Amino acid sequence: MTAPVRAASPEPLAERRIALVDLLDRLLAGGVVLTGDLTLRIADVDLVRVDLKALISSVSEDVPSPWGPAGEGRP
């Protein structure tokens, strides 16, 4: 499924093969935002609408938690 990727390769970027793990590592290092809309209709009448917005990123000990100091439990 994977092939070595050379840095000075003359082949186009679209034809390079990258392992799925490497791709996920690159995406999660910077963060990924997923958005989407789902609408269920019958006879041009909207019955259900679902909006999805999600931020996925890697976790690091160097970045402080937004919920308070580590180790403290919530009441």
Radius of gyration: 21 Å
Sheet-strand content, in percent, reads 25-35%
Walk across the major sheet and give the strand order.
1-2
Q: Strand count, sense and closure of the main sheet? A: 2 strands, antiparallel
Could you state the order of secondary-structure elements as H and E?
HEE
Number of strands: 2
Structural class determined from secondary elements: alpha+beta
Helix content: 10-25%
Describe this structure in words.
There is one protein chain. With 75 residues, this protein is an alpha+beta fold. Helices cover 15% and strands 31% of the residues. It has one helix spanning 20-30, and strands at residues 32-42, 45-56. A two-stranded antiparallel sheet has the order 1-2.
Give me some keywords for this one.
flat, two-stranded antiparallel sheet, single chain
Quick overview:
This protein has 75 residues and is of the alpha+beta class.
Topology:
Layout: H1 20-30, E1 32-42, E2 45-56
Antiparallel strand pairs: 1-2
